[in-house]
Amino acid sequence: MADVKPKSLNIVMFPFMAQGHIIPFVSLALRLEKMIKKNKNREDNLILSLVNTPLNMPKLRSKLPPDSSITLIELPFNSSDHGLPHDAENFDSLPYSLVISLLEASRSLREPFRDLITKILREGDDVVVVGDFFLGWIGEVCKEVGVSSFIFSASGAFGLGCYRSIWLHLPHKETEQDQFLLHDFQEAGEIEKTQLNYFMLEADGSDEWSVFMKKNLPGWSDFDGFLFNTVEEIDHIGLSYFRKITGGKPVWPVGPVLPDAGSRSTDEDVKAWLDSKPDHSVVYVCFGSMNSISQTHMLELAMALESSEKNFIWVVRPPMGVEANKDFDVKEYLPEGFEERIKKSRRGVIVKKWAPQVDILSHKATCVFLSHCGWNSILESLSYGVPLLGWPMAGEQFFNSILMEKHVGVSVEVARGKRCDIKCDEIVSKIKLVMEEESEVGREVRKKAKEVKELVRRAMDDGVNGSSVIGLGEFISHATVKNEKS
Ligand SMILES: O=c1ccn([C@@H]2O[C@H](COP(=O)(O)OP(=O)(O)O[C@H]3O[C@H](CO)[C@@H](O)[C@H](O)[C@H]3O)[C@@H](O)[C@H]2O)c(=O)[nH]1
């Protein structure tokens, strides 16, 4: 009799094509791999894979350690078929104005993805899919072929809840009040009109963003539940919202899942510079993997960093309106002589485009993070007890900023949006407010950030069965029990 291949369970994970989504998906996959390896019985019949488009394969591969058995699966995609620039398969290589075109183009992955899942099922294996909230069609595909699917949200629940509610209740342009409560998420508190990103504010139901959201958001109800890269203890308002709207489906906090410090190519110059600085003396400035500020804002920020007299690391990307992929000389966008002066005084380091962020945040010299409030940046900062100076710019970042400032108490907002009128002096005073010993506000947020660091660590601590460890355990049981029954 021929040997019958034992049935395996494939956990197929599909992040949207953006660094802010790929990074946490890889971290989640690695965390799951670790848990599975610990449980010898499950090791043989569980297969973890990450799906993406051709040009994102190297990005995924570079984040996996050599001994990982996670497999990568490529789906066909050609950006020029969708009116996008050649080779633009990730938000990080697009200007913000074209982000919506990549979101729309990603819908073409539906059929190849369906074929992939059908092929795995035909080979006799079971499948559970973990998909991205921007790939809302995944839930429907999974229902059609009869497999379970879960959203893994790279954003926090509070931020994503506000984002969802705002897109579902358009328009906002005509709203007369400067502040308003969200239609189905009043627990979030008052939202100011200035906290809606440009596309939300302009949306009238017929623009590209509204059209995409109208197709994408209803798809979330086809999934069997949600995993959030978040922590119950800091994000319970948002998690409660998702528990309410999903009507009893599981909503598990499983974070923070983060890349390990030192796991990427550490920049030796940055490290040596940080080593030479006193503890808690450095402002780290970075606006994530896809956002830029305007040329005017760059000049104000440069002057502020120089006149604050604080040590700083600033990750500089080309200003808004300049092609993101273009090679550039930072001198083009900074005040005359700025780079030379800070090099000579050794007071600052300018990193072009991409810095080893987790290494910087985990270094004892770092005091505060001036951030656009992308959720990964927030989680990374909190995990190392670093308070925030918020400058939200796009997406759900405004709501992340509210959560951090008003509910968690670890952030002070510096500026709001890409078009705000922020001047050098205001930036300097906010930097001092958070960093200086005499500042009461500063003492409070720094103390709170240390407390939150412990809370966040506990959530992921196997030893104390932290809230996120429980969430992950429940997800694995859910996935594998279903498999055993089928
Ligand atoms: O120089 C850099 C810049 C970024 N990063 C990493 O890139 C990720 C950036 O993620 P995030 O802070 O979330 O910012 P975005 O790339 O802007 O993320 C997008 O995705 C997030 C998760 O959904 C959303 O919260 C944001 O609003 C959205 O812009 C983090 O892991 C950073 O450590 C680096 O390592 N070095």
UniProtKB/TrEMBL annotation:
Record-linked Gene3D superfamilies: Glycogen Phosphorylase B (3.40.50.2000)
Keywords: Glycosyltransferase, Membrane, Transferase, Transmembrane, Transmembrane helix
GO molecular function: UDP-glucosyltransferase activity
Group of enzyme by EC: transferase
EC number: 2.4.1.-
Transmembrane segments: 12-32
InterPro entries: UDP_glucos_trans (IPR002213), UDP_glycos_trans_CS (IPR035595)
Similarity section: Belongs to the UDP-glycosyltransferase family.
PANTHER family: GLYCOSYLTRANSFERASE, OS04G0273600 PROTEIN
Stated name of the protein: Glycosyltransferase
Organism encoding this protein: Brassica campestris (Field mustard)
